[in-house]
């Protein structure tokens, strides 16, 4: 079955998604799912997806399913809301059972694979902060090899800490990026990532914090990762049958 371009009606009505098709004249061979950070919406990543303009790739930005309380604005991926009394900020790591189940079942399995004909290998994630954690939680629950995960400042959720064996067994390639200080990608977080995934690449930016890439040099490792992992049907005659 050749994959087809997803449309809004393929997805559950309660989900807020934006679909950015491949560049004109190109087939939707891959799907990149973009997951925003805590307290944001999918709008900022919709603009990012348009700027990326990845070849033969449909980008789908997904809004987190849970609104922040107290009229704070924005949405989150966690099972709960916890405030850190020492900083007054919202905790990133509050469980991802509900959001990872939604991403796995409603987005990947029921929509992209069953309705639209994609293989798991052609589905990738790009997540920022809590969105990166949700992507990692989904991959660890799914087990099958996805095309890859780009996680900017998103470590393995703590709910998986006690479940990991000493031997990495998840086949989905992962690139993790973060700042040189004031980062969620600590040495212990990196150790757990390496225990969870067979293939992991780690890039440190020469600045504090886990913000989004701010220049070409910071974006380059991500684009190189996409160049290795995105598949192509360019030059394949129409009507050809894919084997395997």
Backbone CA Rg:
17 Å
Strand order of the largest sheet: 1-3-2-8-9-10-11
Low-pLDDT residue intervals, each spanning 5 or more residues: 236-244
Order of helices and strands: EEHEEEEEHEHEEHEH
Tell the overall outline.
Answer: globular
Oligomer: single chain
Q: Helices and strands: which structural class?
A: alpha/beta
Major β-sheet profile = 7 strands, mixed
Quote the average pLDDT.
90
The total count of helices amounts to: 5
The percent of residues in helical segments reads: 25-40%
Strand content range: 15-25%
Set down the secondary structure blueprint:
Blueprint: E1 17-20, E2 30-35, H1 43-52, E3 57-62, E4 66-67, E5 75-76, E6 83-84, E7 89-90, H2 97-115, E8 123-128, H3 130-142, E9 148-152, E10 174-181, H4 187-196, E11 200-208, H5 216-229
Helix pairs in contact: 2-3
Structure characteristics:
globular; alpha/beta; 27% helix; seven-stranded mixed β-sheet; 5 helices; disordered C terminus; two-stranded antiparallel sheet; 244 residues
Account of the 3D structure:
The protein has 244 residues and is α/β, with parallel strands linked by helices. The chain is built from 5 helices and 11 strands; from the N terminus they run E-E-H-E-E-E-E-E-H-E-H-E-E-H-E-H. It has helices at 43-52, 97-115, 130-142, 187-196, 216-229; strands at residues 17-20, 30-35, 57-62, 66-67, 75-76, 83-84, 89-90, 123-128, 148-152, 174-181, 200-208. Helix 2 (97-115) crosses helix 3 (130-142). The longest helix is centred in the middle third of the chain and has 19 residues, at 97-115. The chain is globular and about 50 Å long. Mean pLDDT is 90; it is low at 236-244.
């Amino acid at each position: 079955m050749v994959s087809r371009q997803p449309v809004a009606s393929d997805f559950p009505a309660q989900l807020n998604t934006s679909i950015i098709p491949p560049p004109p004249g190109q087939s939707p061979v891959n799907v990149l799912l973009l997951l925003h950070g805590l307290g944001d919406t999918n709008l900022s990543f919709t603009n990012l997806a348009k700027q990326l303009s990845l070849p033969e790739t449909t980008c789908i930005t997904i809004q987190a399913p849970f609104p922040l309380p107290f009229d704070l604005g924005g949405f989150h991926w966690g099972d709960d809301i916890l405030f850190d009394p020492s900083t007054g900020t919202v905790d990133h790591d509050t469980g991802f059972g509900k959001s990872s189940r939604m991403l796995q079942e409603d987005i990947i399995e029921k929509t992209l694979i069953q309705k639209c004909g994609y293989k798991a290998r052609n589905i990738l994630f790009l997540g920022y902060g809590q969105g990166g954690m949700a992507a990692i939680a989904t991959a660890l629950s799914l087990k099958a090899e996805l095309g890859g995960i780009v996680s900017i400042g998103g470590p393995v959720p703590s709910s998986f800490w006690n479940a990991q064996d000493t031997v990495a067994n998840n086949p989905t390639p992962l690139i993790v990026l973060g700042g040189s200080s004031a980062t969620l990608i600590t040495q212990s977080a990196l150790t757990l990532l390496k225990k969870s995934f067979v293939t992991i690449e780690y890039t440190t930016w020469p600045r504090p914090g886990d913000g989004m890439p701010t220049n070409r040099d910071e974006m380059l490792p991500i684009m190189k990762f996409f160049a290795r992992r995105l598949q192509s049907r360019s030059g394949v005659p129409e009507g050809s049958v894919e084997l395997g």
